[in-house]
Amino acid sequence: MSLNAVPSANRVHIGFFGRRNAGKSSVVNAVTGQELSVVSDVRGTTTDPVLKSMELLPVGPVVIIDTPGFDDEGHLGTLRVQKTKQVLNKSDVAVLVVDASEGISEIEKELLKLFKEKDIPYVIAMNKADLLSQDDFENETDSLTKETDANEKIQNENDLEKVIYVSALNKTNIYELKERIAKAAVTEVSDKKIVGDLIKPSDWVVLVVPIDSAAPKGRLILPQQQTIRDILDADAVSIVVKENELKKTLDTLSKKPAMVITDSQAFEQVSKDTPEDILLTSFSILMARHKGFLEEAVKGVTAIDSLKDGDKVLICEGCTHHRQCDDIGTVKLPGWLLKYTGKNLQFEFTSGTGFPDDLSPYSLIIHCGACMLGEREVKYRMKCSIDQNIPFTNYGITIAFLKGILKRSLSVFPDLCNQIK
After folding, report:
1. Which phi and psi angles does 207 have, rounded to 5°?
2. CA distance linking residue 190 with residue 192, whole number of Å
3. Element (H, E) at 135
4. What is the structure's pLDDT at 276?
5. Per-residue buried b or exposed e for 47-76, using 16+ beta carbons within 10 Å of the residue's own CB
6. Rounded to an integer, what distance in angstroms lies between the CA atom of residue 366 and that of residue 63?
7. How many CA atoms, within 13 angstroms, populate the side-chain half-sphere of residue 73?
8. What is the pTM of this model?
9. What is the pLDDT of residue 238?
10. Beta-carbon neighbour count of residue 332 at 10 Å?
11. β-strands 50-56, 60-66: how paired?
């Protein structure tokens, strides 16, 4: 698949991490073959994460991310380190860039610990190898395995297998570094389907796509595009209609559709217009499964019935689109929740990469379908919620629950549907 055909959220994200002046930006430029990042001898030149899409064979389209130094100092430095930690949450592969002339420090050890805690495949690029003598090579290798604790020594021996000495200046071993990165990244490439594994060749699938003031001009939103493509890849047929055309379309079709998939905003009306013997679900529910948090979203939605006056609900958007007057996240969902619960609830909103570290103020987190976020980042958010005992659900599940059609909307997943009372 070509670079432009793959949405950013579906590309493998490769983050470059390390101390200031280790040569991260130089290594990134050498790997990409482009002057992606500004390079200088001044410590802390990179002040914000820099992203670049490229092709990395045999993986395919990837996103390269250059990050600020993990040892940055002062108030702004602390903020930059926080940005770097956020990049970790979306990185499928990490490259630790070390100044080989200085060796492994506590900063690098802290980063390696984070890679392991977050289960991120990684490569250790010992940069500036052109400055090393043979004795330096041997001393640095010894330092990776000299630990008193046996378990740490085993881990460091595993780290040693991930080490490659490079020179961004002389382009030494850059090709080999790309090969190492690609090998680590291949395990992160997902072939999960959105709906293709739920249908058969020649099946008809009706997609309900409302065209209202919130719909983008002249195009479909990403989950709709991806679902259509998934249906085509499954050798099935997609029929796209607006919500007010669904009933007439179903009445005139010569063949019963295998499934109806709707935008969650139209769930209530679409449920009324779709016969009970036709499976019904939503783009948001399918995206929750695709991103790996559907089961948790179904568990979390029941917390709505326990909300009390004054409880705070966090509503998270993965993208940063311009919000309309009838925006689903900031207007419709809060309105439906207030009407359903009859409680005086408070709402807070995040968008894009913003997500709070401390979730304790919230009684419920409702996330979008996360089409613009990678699976690793969404699962990180879900795990943060679970760790802090905050129920986590998503738009589609919430709307189906509020409209009394949750069980029906999950009928396409019998095992999960049977868990609902």
Report:
1. -110, 125
2. 6
3. helix 134-145
4. 93
5. eebbebebebeebbbbbbbbbbbbbbeeee
6. 27
7. 2
8. 0.70
9. 96
10. 16
11. antiparallel
Indicate the DSSP class of residue 328: I
- Residue 373: CB partners within 8 Å, gap ≥ 6? 9, 90, 291, 318
Local structure of residue 89 (DSSP, 8 states) = H
Confidence of residue 73 (pLDDT cuts 50, 70, 90): confident
DSSP state at residue 167: B
The answer for residues whose C-beta is within 8 angstroms of residue 382's C-beta and 6 or more apart is 293, 296, 392
Over 50: is that where the pLDDT of 342 sits? yes
| Span of 134-138, 169-173, 284-288, 341-345 with lowest mean pLDDT | 134-138
DSSP label at 357? S
Element holding 352 (H helix, E strand): none
Cα-based angle 385, 389, 390 (whole degrees, multiple of 5): 55
H helix runs in 205-332, sequence order: 222-233, 246-252, 267-273, 283-291, 294-301
Question: How crowded is the C-beta side of 2, counted as CA atoms within 13 Å?
Answer: 2
| Phi, psi angle pair for 36, to nearest 5° | -70, -45
Peptide bond into 58 cis (omega under 30): yes
What are the tokens at 304?
A: 């709505």
For range 210-219, the mean pLDDT: 66
Element (H, E) at 333: helix 333-341
How many CA atoms within 13 Å lie on the side-chain side of 102? 14
